[in-house]
Amino acid sequence: MKILGISGSLRRDSYNTKLLRNAPLELELWDGLKAIPPYDEDDDVEPAPPAVVQMRTAVAGADAILFATPEYNASIPGQLKNAVDWLSRPQATSVLRNKPVAVVGASTGAFGAVWAQAELRKVLATAGARVVDGDVAVGHAHEQFDSAGMLTDHNLREQLQEVTQALVAAATLREAVAA
Ligand SMILES: Cc1cc2nc3c(=O)[nH]c(=O)nc-3n(C[C@H](O)[C@H](O)[C@H](O)COP(=O)(O)O)c2cc1C
Question: What pTM did the predictor assign?
Answer without folding.
Answer: 0.98
